[in-house]
Amino acid sequence: MMNMGEKIRMHRLHRSMTQERLSQSVGVTAQAVSKWENGTSDPSTSNLIALAKLFDLSAEELLHEVR
Question: What pTM value is reported for the model?
Answer without folding.
Answer: 0.91
